[in-house]
UniProtKB/TrEMBL annotation:
Protein name as catalogued: D-galactonate dehydratase family protein
Example of a GO biological process term: amino acid catabolic process
Domain Mandelate racemase/muconate lactonizing enzyme C-terminal: 128-257
InterPro entries xrefs: D-mannonate_dehydratase-like, DgoD-like, Enolase-like_C_sf, Enolase-like_N, Enolase_C-like, Mandel_Rmase/mucon_lact_enz_CS, Mandelate_racemase_C, Mandelate_racemase_N_dom
Molecular-function GO term, any one: magnesium ion binding
Amino acid sequence: MKIESVQTIVTCPGRNFVTVKVMTDEGVHGLGDATLNGRELAVQAYLDEHVIPCLIGRDPRNLEDIWQYLYRGAYWRRGPVTMTAIAAIDMALWDIKGKLAGMPVYQLLGGRSRWGLMVYGHANGRDHAEAVEAVQRHVEQGYKAIRVQSGVPGLGKVYGVGKGGGHYEPAEKGLPSEEPWDTSLYLRHTPELFRKVRDAVGFGPLLLHDAHHRLTPIEAARLGKALEPFSLFWLEDATPAENQEAFRLIRQHTTTPLAVGEVFNSVWDCKTLISEQLVDYIRATIVHAGGITHVRRIADFAAMYQVRTGFHGATDLSPVCMAAAVNFGLWAPNFGIQELMPHSELTDAVFPHNYRFEDGYLVMDEVPGLGVDIDEALAAKYPYERAYLPVARLADGAMWHW
Ligand code: KDG
Ligand code: MG
């Protein structure tokens, strides 16, 4: 059996997605997500110019060897562009393997450990009152776990909060917009936000919060401590994690569980964090961390230290990645939770898929492969449009962390 051709498909049904389609000489095809928010075309070029020509004629069933060939063989290891490109090919090859076996990918991984993946939804508000209402709406919709983000009094627009209060889209068309940031205002108001949410909905729903890497370690420690009375499921991306050792300081001061890793692309990014048990949840995703083959290694390593998975699941990950995540989470013994920002109806139409939301969980049927496809004719109607995440600046104009 041979890989006959590989196509990269870029489409923008409201936001940009890059997809690879691997075709075999036996008529079976596989899909992989190659979307890297704000850097989409770099991954497409990496695939088209440097990866795809090396794949033609290879046996798609040897996905481990192909993974090693693309990782070790490149000389330039790791990095988000490389690891997203490898992930896309890897996902597509698992999809093919599942279709050949007539089994879902979760069966190839070891079968079901659970019937569904508990997800967390996004409740956002321009102010605390709006955020509390959004949490209540999520509870009514059946969510068991809810991430809460709110505008900060005295600060203009805050990342993670939609313009109209509700849904937000991580990337905006055109060049990057600029948003103000003030850590002291944020630290003053965030515990108050969670007090109001707990007063409104009690301690039943699991609550999460994302600090988007904006804090120093000691600020993160202070926030974690201040949030302890509200019993969070996790505090996410408290501080930029290139410096893994920084989490030692946060850990010394707070029992609020910590999650990190949506920007990680290999096990090396989380080696210290996991082996020293400095975090509780690892968020490295299938699309940005080398595919199912590599994320499985991260998850197994994490399991040895009682660290569970909590994969990134914003709308900038396509339904192809989400289908892979559902297969993975159905199997992973140390699955913790899955982020879910629902895609638009148009995106769902471009990528018809089997997984679905049911009463706070993502479930899927026993379908071969990943259980997702692409409507290429519909995708072609929505060409790429340049879009970026905003950037953050302090009051004096200096750039701040993401
Ligand atoms: O591309 C960046 C977004 O996916 C990110 O800002 C969303 O932090 C995020 C999250 O936790 O979903
Ligand atoms: Mg995040």
